[in-house]
């Protein structure tokens, strides 16, 4: 039963986030992107501070070691972002040189096919996305191992925070091939890797149960970092009063959603 729940949770988080991202990117819901960012930020912070961290600190693990793991996780995700920025900047530099060379030779015919040729970064994006989704699967599995409802909350939180990320992936792939359906298929396959991470996490956590609190803290560091470093900065812009109220309201909805699920778990 636990393994089935992990598979379902990881598939919902991995593939569901891609489909929701596609609806926001390509469909009529595109105008609600900013609201989704607020909702995701609220859900992520509430999940980390109200569920994952309390669950970890209720264990027999040393508080000092857990805080050290939290700090290490935050630094790790910061360095991961730095590495990704360096890779994209390096790739852009070489892409710009290639583009300049094309203009030097004046190949108008080749330039006309530029929009149909996949960008060099397309496979890099998919590879990075697959690795990220594999890690999300392990984190979701660790939460399910602690408590079924905690796992469900973690899966929903992963779904929420992956939506903006997958929107960026879809935009990159669509820019390269100008094909919405193919972009959706490729990113969906990457999202499905979340289930593989869940299976690996199930066996890993089962064998190393004493390390479960550390898995929960690493998950928390991921959620906190994404919320504060990626999502919140996108919300910090000058807005009208009504837009600001809407932004804060959606942030509260994200926090309230997790709080309600928490209350149901405690009542049980």
First-residue to last-residue Cα separation: 18 Å
Tally of contiguous helical segments: 9
Number of domains: 1
Order of helices and strands: HHHHHHHHH
Query: What is the molecular shape?
Result: globular
Q: What summary fits the major beta sheet?
A: none
> What's the helical proportion of residues?
over 70%
Structural class: mainly alpha
Strand proportion: under 5%
Summarize the SSE layout with pairings:
Blueprint lengths: L1 H25 L6 H25 L5 H43 L2 H5 L9 H25 L1 H30 L2 H28 L4 H24 L5 H27 L1
What do you see in this structure?
Helix 6 runs antiparallel to helix 7. The chain has helices spanning 2-26, 33-57, 63-105, 108-112, 122-146, 148-177, 180-207, 212-235, 241-267. The protein is globular, with a radius of gyration of 20 Å. It has one domain. 87% of the residues lie in helices and 0% in strands. The chain is an all-alpha fold and 268 residues long.
Give a quick rundown of the structure.
The chain has 9 helices and no strands. It is an all-alpha fold. The longest helix is centred in the N-terminal third of the chain and has 43 residues.
Properties at a glance:
mainly alpha, 268 residues, single chain, 9 helices, 87% helix
């Amino acid at each position: 039963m636990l393994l089935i729940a992990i598979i379902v949770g990881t598939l919902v988080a991995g593939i569901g986030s891609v489909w929701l991202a596609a609806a926001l990117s390509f469909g009529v819901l595109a105008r609600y992107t900013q609201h989704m960012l607020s909702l995701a930020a609220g859900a992520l912070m509430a999940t980390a501070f109200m569920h994952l961290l309390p669950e970890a600190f209720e264990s027999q693990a040393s508080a000092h070691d857990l805080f050290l793991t939290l700090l290490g996780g935050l630094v790790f995700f910061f360095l991961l972002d730095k590495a990704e920025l360096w890779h994209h900047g390096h790739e852009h530099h070489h892409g710009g040189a290639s583009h300049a060379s094309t203009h030097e030779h004046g190949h108008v015919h080749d330039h006309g096919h530029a929009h149909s040729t996949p960008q060099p970064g397309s496979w890099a994006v998919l590879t990075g996305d697959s690795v990220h989704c594999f890690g999300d699967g392990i984190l979701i599995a660790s939460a399910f191992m602690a408590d079924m409802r905690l796992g469900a909350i973690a899966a929903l939180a992963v779904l929420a925070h992956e939506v903006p990320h997958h929107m960026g992936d879809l935009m990159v792939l669509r820019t390269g091939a100008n094909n919405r359906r193919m972009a959706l298929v490729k990113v969906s396959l990457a999202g499905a890797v979340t289930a593989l991470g869940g299976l690996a996490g199930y066996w890993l956590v089962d064998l190393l149960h004493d390390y479960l609190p550390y898995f929960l803290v690493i998950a928390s560091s991921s959620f906190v970092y994404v919320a504060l470093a990626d999502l919140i900065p996108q919300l910090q812009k000058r807005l009208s009063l009504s837009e600001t109220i809407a932004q804060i309201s959606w942030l509260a909805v994200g926090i309230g959603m997790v709080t309600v699920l928490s209350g149901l778990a405690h009542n049980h």
